[in-house]
């Protein structure tokens, strides 16, 4: 760069002239001629040749030492720049940015119309309820009692559960929407009884259940046995309360 004057950008630079003079004095013209041809082609200053350069059989002075001496002389003071040389001006980046078209934000794309998902209501769970006996009923101490509930078309069978006052649990299975049983056969004790029905499908899964309903079974009322004659033999009779307002007399 120094030898070429910045490839012709600063041809009158004093440092370049001094550097070329040293090269011209210390280097054989046979080496410098090709270099000067290149410099002339790019319109850069060429290195002056030394016509008194020693022949090839004579010793050549130390070029490296001469260059170091030259740099040492110019280290204390920077080379003067030719005032006539046109200053190199660079357009500020701001001016380039000012002429550039500002980036415009991309216009938002129109929203794609999407269909609202159709709300699907889940099918209501099947329900059924107890018909007989109603909640709070007072049943007889003994005798046949009918338990009935509404039918569930999807049910394959029903499980009827009774929980006696003492905690005993009795269950029955039926395919009908009713059950007839002698109450003294599965609820021997008096007191409140809770019952309900579960509807099952063919696989045994519970489809629905009724609400639990409570009824009461009163304590039996037995009278003092009485003796009598019937057909020539002695019979003993007593009275049994079958409901709140019904009594029967049993003789044996």
Distance between the termini: 144 Å
- The unreliable regions are 93-98, 242-246
Helix content: 10-25%
Number of domains: 3
SS class: alpha+beta
Identify the overall geometry: rod-shaped
What average pLDDT do the residues reach?
74
Q: What's the Cα radius of gyration? A: 63 Å
Number of helices: 5
Order of helix and strand elements from N to C terminus = HHHHEEEEEHEEEEEE
Q: Can you say what the CATH homologous superfamily of the largest domain is?
A: Immunoglobulins
Largest sheet: 5 strands, antiparallel
Give the CATH level 1 class of the largest domain.
Answer: Mainly Beta
Portion of residues in beta strands equals 25-35%
Question: How many β-strand stretches?
Answer: 11
Describe the structure in your own words.
This protein is 19% helix and 27% strand. It has five helices and eleven strands, in the order ααααβββββαββββββ. Strands 3, 4, 6, 7 and 8 form a five-stranded antiparallel β-sheet that branches. It starts with 13 loop residues before the first helix and ends with a strand. Residues 93-98 and 242-246 have low confidence and may be disordered.
Descriptors:
252 residues, alpha+beta, Immunoglobulin-like, 3 domains, five-stranded antiparallel beta sheet, three-stranded antiparallel beta sheet, 19% helix, 27% strand
